[in-house]
Backbone:
């Protein structure tokens, strides 16, 4: 009876070469953005970072069926790892990003082992508690993290020793776009693998999966670690592109926001993040400036409206629209 | 090829609190057996299957596979050892297609389910076996239909395909024809006849027509104990069995020759 | 010795507030199987009602709490019938999103109506001082809290264990279909139970307004604690969360006293350890 349906037909069909081209073109178009709209690189970079973050969440929520309200914990761990490393002299962006991924993956492993035996409300609560725990630690360890003021003195060396992170943000733009592309390619391959299919099976009927011999807890743990790694990567990219890390990156508010971003576009279809994130950030930019209360009101109303009227997000609505049109054509 | 195994229970007992459900059941199933387990509602037939597959633990007694005590083994381990089953209440992956449903089981059975670097379609042998199984149960035309959109009878067929995908040495069918009109049950029978000869099959069902046509031997379970065991003719002629079924469907006595 | 007594007392008072707020969540979760993250909203509204009646209209403290309790219970009842019941069969994700959306809407409305700052809680004079009982000096406010809380909790347990209404709730929690089949009107039962649960939350929010500050961020800040009480205590029963709430109240108070630099770190770690040991809560249903 779930409203958030995953598209099974799209995954099953083998893509033809023409379709492949259609999927690459948007990336090239986006990469050309600095030519069309110079000055928007920093905003676009933020969007890329959030898309990566939302993709990692989609792996959990949309595919494995693990609902988490603490995903910002992994994002923040990645950000603080990269930031703290840079403050202490390790400034190579790719290496620190890798370290951030590993740290986040290990964090995800530890929490996952503790949490993933539980289900439902208990699991949800533990995901929240894990992020709150990390937030508190970061808040109190002011010597290491800068506490409420945020981490100061973050700066990174040029990518490959050639492309420096400057105020205009061109380097950050291409750097995050490239990493987003690679990450997306990996996640897409993951979804189409037998492992990815088994995740959907666990989401749809975990009792049945157990009855066909699937080691459920182990699978969920593996996907949690992978999702944590990519969330950490997104956090590191955030630190690298903004040269700053704040407590917000570990907050409950961010966990909620990224979930909303994902749902807005539609979970369970990786492309949903590409739709939901820009829309959310645009709306946030417009509404939150005047009065945060209005922004909360708008967000809340849209969420409630979506759950009651349009489950599946924007892509879900589109999918239903296409189905209706096809049915009408046949009739 | 598929291995074979002998299943045995010795003095198997299971009680829920003070309530005995299975009492001192000695039961043997050999490779190639075509056995049916019948009995009135509440006799404990599904409980017996749950004890064999490991979903339930007995209060005393043992379950043996090829002479080895597997009573302490969990469900997943017993599945790997070759004990397969279908469910009385259909339990499928509703939004996934028939092909995806069966593939999941094939993937787990053949150990490729944990692999995430290559697409599903790279694993040709498993895809082929999936398609074979789907054809065997007659669902090839519906291979791309989500399971929840299948008519109930075809969902039961999908259940059987998933059970077969796990390459069971012992196959336990819990009311495969439940909810299917008797006129259609021959479809189940046709599928059952394609099961390799050396697999042991235990069938539970209330459709006496199906039971008497399928089984070479029938065991009768009443109130947790085995009342009698014999050929279909012997069971049909047995007075005690008729008494137990008095008031229920007339099939029990009349169907056999 | 006095330190231990003080910590005990403060911890029990805090635990009681947590319990009063969370017990409704445990019951409604056990009844409707609905993940209601917005439960903290009702506690917050009870707090706002209490503070507003006290500060603006000069209503006595306990009376203000009572009025807030009744108003919020009515609101809960209406919301259950209008919105919540449409989502009972839906996936966990949908329920989480819905209740999260509800939190955001409530936070926005409260912020617009009362402003972004925490509400000043002006305790009435008779609650400000200290009281001496058995040679121990205790703050009056918390004494009243513990006393009043004990009375309410005792009453709640009586209703749950001894009345027909309580029996119906326990039956419906145990086996909803069966309860319906024996003629219990489960849909009306849910609405009443939801109203009761939210009313209790408002009671806890109002009574505890000096402990858990009444501000727009309330539902987001504290929901994790209410969920902890319910998850550790076990869903669907009312005795388990009591033990859990007291344990959390005492542990948190003790930790903040002895290791203030650690903040809530110990509590969260403590919760993880408990749930690793007993994933279904310390008083699991069967």
Residues:
């Amino acid at each position: 009876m779930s409203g958030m349906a995953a598209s099974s037909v799209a995954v099953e069909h083998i893509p033809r070469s023409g379709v492949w081209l259609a999927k690459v073109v948007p990336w090239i178009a986006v990469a050309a953005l600095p030519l069309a709209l110079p000055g928007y690189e920093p905003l676009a970079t933020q969007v890329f970072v959030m898309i990566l973050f939302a993709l990692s969440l989609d792996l959990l929520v949309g595919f494995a069926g693990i609902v988490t309200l603490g995903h910002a914990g992994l994002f923040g761990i990645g950000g603080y790892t990269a930031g703290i490393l840079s403050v202490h002299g390790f400034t190579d962006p790719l290496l620190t990003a890798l370290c951030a991924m590993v740290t986040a993956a290990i964090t995800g492993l530890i929490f996952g082992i503790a949490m993933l035996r539980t289900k439902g409300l208990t699991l949800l609560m533990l995901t929240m508690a894990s992020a709150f725990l990390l937030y508190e630690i970061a808040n109190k360890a002011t010597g290491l993290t800068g506490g409420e003021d945020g981490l100061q003195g973050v700066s990174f060396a040029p990518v490959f020793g050639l492309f420096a992170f400057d105020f205009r943000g061109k380097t950050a733009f291409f750097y995050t776009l490239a990493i987003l592309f690679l990450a997306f390619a990996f996640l897409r391959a993951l979804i189409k693998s037998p492992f990815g299919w088994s995740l959907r099976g666990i989401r749809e009927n975990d009792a049945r999966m157990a009855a066909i011999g699937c080691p459920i807890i182990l699978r969920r743990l593996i996907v949690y670690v992978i999702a944590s790694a990519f969330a950490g990567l997104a956090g590191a990219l955030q630190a690298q592109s903004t040269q700053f890390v704040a407590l917000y990156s570990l907050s409950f508010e961010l966990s909620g926001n990224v979930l909303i971003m994902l749902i807005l576009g539609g979970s369970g279809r990786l492309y949903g993040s590409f739709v939901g994130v820009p829309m959310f950030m645009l709306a946030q930019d417009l509404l939150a400036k005047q009065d945060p209360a209005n922004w909360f009101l708008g967000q809340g109303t849209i969420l409630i409206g979506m759950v009651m009227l349009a489950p599946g997000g924007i892509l879900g609505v589109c999918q239903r629209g296409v189905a209706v049109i096809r049915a009408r054509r046949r009739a | 090829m598929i291995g074979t195994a002998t299943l045995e229970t010795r003095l198997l007992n299971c009680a829920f609190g003070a309530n005995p459900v299975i009492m001192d059941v000695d039961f043997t199933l050999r490779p190639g057996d075509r056995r049916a387990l019948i009995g009135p509602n509440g006799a404990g037939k599904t409980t017996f299957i749950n004890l064999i597959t490991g979903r339930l633990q007995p209060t005393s007694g043992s379950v043996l596979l090829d002479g080895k005590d597997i009573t302490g083994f969990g469900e997943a381990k017993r599945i790997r050892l070759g004990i397969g089953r279908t469910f009385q209440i259909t339990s499928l992956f509703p939004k996934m297609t028939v092909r995806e449903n069966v593939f999941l089981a094939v993937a787990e059975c053949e150990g490729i389910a944990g692999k995430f670097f290559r697409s599903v379609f790279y694993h040709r042998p498993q895809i082929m076996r999936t398609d074979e199984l789907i054809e065997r149960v007659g669902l090839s035309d519906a291979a791309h239909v989500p399971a929840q959109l299948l008519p109930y009878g075809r969902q039961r067929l999908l259940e059987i395909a998933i059970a077969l995908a796990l390459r069971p040495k012992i196959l336990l069918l819990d009311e495969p024809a439940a909810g299917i009109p008797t006129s259609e049950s021959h479809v189940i029978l046709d599928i059952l006849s394609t099961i390799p000869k050396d697999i042991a099959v235990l069938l539970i069902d209330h459709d006496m027509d199906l039971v008497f046509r399928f089984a070479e031997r029938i065991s009768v379970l009443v109130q947790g104990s085995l009342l009698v065991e014999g050929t279909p003719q012997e069971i049909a002629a047995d007075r005690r069995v008729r008494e137990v079924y008095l008031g229920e469907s007339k099939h029990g006595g009349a169907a056999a020759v | 010795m006095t330190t231990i007594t003080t910590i005990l007392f403060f911890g029990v008072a805090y635990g009681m507030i947590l319990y009063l707020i969370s017990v409704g969540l445990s019951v409604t979760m056990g009844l409707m199987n609905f993940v209601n993250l917005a439960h903290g909203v009702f506690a917050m509204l009870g707090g706002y009602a209490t503070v507003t009646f006290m500060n603006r209209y000069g209503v006595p403290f306990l009376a203000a709490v009572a009025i807030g309790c009744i108003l919020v219970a009515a609101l809960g009842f209406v919301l259950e019938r209008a919105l919540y019941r449409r989502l009972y069969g839906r996936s966990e994700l949908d329920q989480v999103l819905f209740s999260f959306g509800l939190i955001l809407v409530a936070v926005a409305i409260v912020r617009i109506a009362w402003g972004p700052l925490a509400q000043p809680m002006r305790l009435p004079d008779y609650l400000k001082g200290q009281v001496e009982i058995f040679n121990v000096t205790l703050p009056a406010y918390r004494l009243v809290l513990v006393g009043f809380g004990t009375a309410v909790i005792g009453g709640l347990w009586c209703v749950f264990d001894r009345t027909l209404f309580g029996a119906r709730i326990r039956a419906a929690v145990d086996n909803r279909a069966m309860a319906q089949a024996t003629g219990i009107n489960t849909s009306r039962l849910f609405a009443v139970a939801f109203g009761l649960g939210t009313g209790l939350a408002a009671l806890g929010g109002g009574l505890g307004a000096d402990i858990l500050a009444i501000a727009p961020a309330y539902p987001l800040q504290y929901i994790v604690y209410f969920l902890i009480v319910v998850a550790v205590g076990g869903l669907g029963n009312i005795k388990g969360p009591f033990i859990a709430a007291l344990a959390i109240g005492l542990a948190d108070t003790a930790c903040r006293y002895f290791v203030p630099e650690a903040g809530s770190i110990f509590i969260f770690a403590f919760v993880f350890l408990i749930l690793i040991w007993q994933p279904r809560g310390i008083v699991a249903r069967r």
